[in-house]
Amino acid sequence: METELNSIHVFKTNIKNIDPACEMRKTLDDHSDIKHWSIDHEDVDCVLRVVSDVLKPETIIGMINQFGHECQELN
What we know:
By secondary structure, this protein is of the alpha+beta class. It has helices at residues 23-30, 57-65; strands spanning 8-13, 36-40, 47-51, 71-73.
């Protein structure tokens, strides 16, 4: 499966760990416009990667912020 580079959004977050039952995980898993997402907990910036052809970075930031986490786009 090839992914267009412009559909991969990368963010710096303060998400140190994520419980399998937490609402943020459910929201990201169930969002129809998100093809895949991951958080690199070993990176000092707790990098969140979201693959979506439709969502804008501002929308993803808002989703993460609503759960009380910081989220900043990395360029």
